[in-house]
Amino acid sequence: MKNNGITYLILTSILLVIITILVYFNTNFPLVFYLTFLGQCLLIYSVYRILTDNYNTKRTFKDWYEDYPHNKEDY
Length: 75
What we know:
This protein is mainly alpha-helical. It has helices spanning 5-24, 29-51. The protein has one domain (5-74). The longest helix is centred in the middle third of the chain and has 23 residues, at 29-51. The chain is elongated and about 60 Å long. The mean pLDDT is 84. The chain crosses the membrane at residues 7-25, 31-51.
């Protein structure tokens, strides 16, 4: 499986939900603290991976939006 930035962002979101559940059930503080620290590091890494991802597209600004075409001939 190719681990791109979105995969790390999904893992970060899952970790955030797990931390919220652990806080709700009054889990001990060190576990929540270290998972929060791990989540912050994972968030920074996922943002880095998204910004440095080698993503290429053939679309330009002249293509405008897909759901609202800019050219009259696309109607």
